[in-house]
Amino acid sequence: MKKVFCLAFLAAAIPVFAAEENLALNKAVTASSTEKAKVEPNLAVDGNPKTRWSSRFDDPQWFLVDLGGVKKVGKVVILWEKAYAKRYKIQLSTDQKHWKDAVVKNDGKGGKETLTFPQQEARYVRFAGDGRASWNGYSFWEFQIFEK
Q1: Distance between CA atoms of residues 74 and 147, nearest Å
Q2: Beta bridge partners of 145
Q3: Residue 2 DSSP SS3
Q4: Which of 41, 43, 54, 134 qualifies as a cystine partner to 31, CB 3.0-4.6 A?
Q5: Residues 121 and 73: beta-carbon distance below 8 Å
Q6: What are the φ/ψ torsions at residue 120 (nearest 5 degrees)?
Q7: Domain for residue 34, yes or no?
Q8: What is the CATH number of the domain that holds 133?
Q9: pLDDT in tens, 76-129
Q10: Rounded-to-integer distance, Cα 106 and Cα 89, Å
């Protein structure tokens, strides 16, 4: 009986951390354009790092995730394909009419970019690109949204 008490006590003392929930996973998405078939917007929120969205090769372009309801949002992670943005914004809205800039980025590096900002309520999260790093469009393997 003593051993059970000790094990229960130890289990209670060890913190358990839940994995962060990607709020964008399999949500409805739209984009200003798509380069071609098989790189549609929904492929950037499908959880598969081998599929991606790619835009046409001009500026500006946008990519929008509808979270399905108002959520608290404080972090966006973009896993870029080689066609990344030098200048872009992450914008938030609860009604898709009034937008607030959560992040303004003028020095995008590509690769994996983790963008944190003060937590805010949003139903819609939009990437708004206005400066491509190359002649290609914008393309990401995954666009992830987190509470914090």
Answers
A1: 5
A2: 76
A3: helix
A4: 41
A5: yes
A6: -140, 160
A7: yes
A8: 2.60.120.260
A9: 999 999 999 999 999 999 999 999 999 999 999 999 999 999 999 999 999 999
A10: 9
Whether residue 47 has pLDDT greater than 70? yes
Cα–Cα distance for residue pair 127/10, rounded to 1 Å: 45
Look at residue 59 and give its three-state secondary structure: coil
In a domain, 97, yes or no: yes
Per DSSP, helices labelled H in the chain are 2-13
116: left (phi over 0), alpha (psi -120 to 50) or beta: beta
CB 93 within 8 A of CB 49: no
Q: Write the DSSP symbol of residue 44.
A: G
Burial class (CB in 10 A: 0-12, 13-18, 19+), 69: exposed
Burial grade of 47 (CB within 10 A; 0-12, 13-18, 19 or more): exposed
- SS3 for 107-146 is CCCCCEEEEEEEEEEEEEEEEEEEEECCCCCCEEEEEEEE
Domain count, the chain: 1
- Which of residues 13 and 92 earns the better pLDDT score? 92
